[in-house]
Amino acid sequence: MAVGTQTGTSNRSSLMTAMKIVAVLYAALVLVQAIIAGRGWFKDFDLIKTHGNIGTGVFVVAIVQVVLAFMVFGPRSSLTLGFALVLILTAVQLGLGYASDENSTAASLHIPNGVLIFGLSCVLASRVVGGVGTKSI
User: Fold this and answer.
1) What residues make up the domain containing 17?
2) Is residue 90 assigned to a domain?
3) Does the global pTM surpass 0.70?
4) 106 near 75, Cβ under 8 Å?
5) For residue 76, what are the CA distances in angstroms to 17, 36, 68, 71, 85?
6) Residue 3: inside a domain, yes or no?
7) What is the count of structural domains for the chain?
8) Residues 53-90 pLDDT 10s
9) Maximal C-alpha separation, the chain
């Protein structure tokens, strides 16, 4: 029994480590997105395409975050719900970004939604890394 318990604890610890890495990675990638978008808008417009391509990768990281959060914290955790919200906002962000080529309203909502995503992702990452709400792990 002790070996099984230790293995379970080890797996949980590994998942928590992965959760911390992915949460920080997501927030960092969103910041990089903002930097690339700013440079693309004001310096080299070709970077806007790169911004969109990286955005697709950020969406994949958001999916991984939700899966890890579900595995680590469970389906009813406020952290899991927060990461699910980030995934939804990221999907909306992709749609707004691709629609902004032909729709100024989509473009005008893309920037504040990105700010919301960045703020929320920083809060969630700090809670995960700092252990807030993760004491039962």
Assistant:
1) 9-129
2) yes
3) yes
4) no
5) 20, 35, 13, 11, 13
6) no
7) 1
8) 999 999 999 999 999 999 999 999 999 999 999 999 99
9) 62
